[in-house]
Amino acid sequence: MDERAAYEILGLEPGASPLDVKQAYRRAALATHPDRAPTKASRRQYMKQFLRVRDAYEFLRVNGFPDLPASPESDPAAKLPPLYQAPDWLVAQWEKEARSGWDWPELDEHDVSVLWRLAVVVGFACLFFLGAWSLMKKGVPRKVTIFGVSISPG
Questions:
Q1: DSSP state for residue 148 in the 8-state scheme
Q2: Domain spanning 3-100: which superfamily?
Q3: Which of 14, 52, 109, 146 has a CA between 20 and 30 Å from the CA of residue 84?
Q4: Tens of pLDDT along 91-150?
Q5: Sign (positive or negative) of CA dihedral 137, 140, 143, 144
Q6: Domain spans of the chain?
Q7: 9-67 pLDDT, tens per residue?
Q8: DSSP per-residue string spanning 73-86
Q9: Are 71 and 61 in contact (CB under 8 A)?
Q10: Using an 8 Å Cβ cutoff, are 146 and 128 in contact?
């Protein structure tokens, strides 16, 4: 990529100020972000455009204006302490998935209702077992069998 192409991608004239470059990058990044895609099918196209905008900004930041701040998308772990930074091989895998257009599956109303029912059932089961356990600790029964599972105090 050359400097003229980078300015063109950001929608600027060559020789723009660092402030103009930064503002144009933010505007273009918001307009082309994959999360703003109207349909799932257009998300891949938005990702390609977003990566072009990011690469153009990084090119200008490194070559033209070294005092520009790094884009948060280029290195999201830069602000994290070393303990929380992901290893290089994992970051490379994430970037590969991002460039291939991988995204989360969309859930419809039926999937959400099934997940909600499952969460309610699991919650009630936990409460039931906790109640039985607290009764056994108080000394009421010696052994409780629930759904074929026997629980006895320790």
A1: T
A2: DnaJ domain (1.10.287.110)
A3: 52
A4: 777 777 777 765 656 667 777 788 888 888 888 888 887 777 676 666 655 666 777 777
A5: negative
A6: 3-100, 109-151
A7: 999 988 888 888 889 999 999 899 888 888 888 888 988 999 999 999 888 888 877 66
A8: TT-GGGGS-GGGPP
A9: yes
A10: yes
